[in-house]
Design a protein that fits this description.
Strand content: 35-45%
Number of domains: 1
Order of helices and strands: HHEEHEEEE
Helix content: 10-25%
CATH topology: Nuclear Transport Factor 2, Chain: A
Shape: globular
Distance between the termini: 26 Å
Largest sheet: 6 strands, mixed
Structural class: alpha+beta
Radius of gyration: 16 Å
CATH class: Alpha Beta
Number of strands: 6
Length: about 170
């Protein structure tokens, strides 16, 4: 299936539609339906988690915890689904809360939106919480929204207790 970015034209995307999209995305991740989650992205997408000290800078030019284009994102999904992915096998139990959804702009470049998040992760008797803000650039593929750029800005000074991220935030 090829995905073509279409101009927004007269199609109006509402905040409620963005909210529904984000709630569905959270459910897909919490249910470990990662292939379906990947289908939400364009073929030229970027998924990134900047380090806490490089916020606001281009993730392709500075250190990021994660800065994946589509091929690396596909590999990440495949790796996380394998039993040999020891950091996530058995899979973590997660619950995502998405809140304060804001539609920032709706123009020829796409739809920019933000939302706050809390991701609760439970694995091997340890509970960890990640909080932060998502930044999205959506485009239309036909009538469907697709993620062209997704940034998860984590509001932590450090990633205790293990210093790494093994789940999709």
């Amino acid at each position: 299936m090829t995905m073509v970015d279409e101009p927004l034209g007269t199609r109006v995307v509402t905040r409620a539609e963005i909210e529904d999209f984000l709630y569905n995305e959270a459910a897909l991740l919490d249910e470990w339906r990662l292939e379906e989650w990947l289908d939400l992205f364009t073929l030229d997408c970027v998924y990134e988690i900047p380090s806490s000290d490089t916020r606001g800078l281009d993730g392709g030019l500075v250190y990021s915890l994660i800065h994946d284009r589509r091929p690396l994102l596909e590999q990440r999904v495949l790796r996380l689904k394998k039993p040999t992915a020891h950091a996530e096998y058995p899979h973590s139990r997660t619950r995502r809360l998405v809140t304060n959804v804001r539609l920032l702009s709706h123009d020829g470049d796409g739809i920019r939106a933000t939302a706050n998040f809390a991701v609760f992760r439970s694995r091997a008797g340890k509970d960890v919480m990640y909080v932060g803000c998502y930044e999205y650039l959506f485009v239309l593929d036909g009538d469907a929204l697709r993620i062209k750029h997704r940034t998860a800005v984590i509001e932590h000074e450090s990633l205790d207790p293990h210093g790494k991220i093994s789940i999709i935030i």
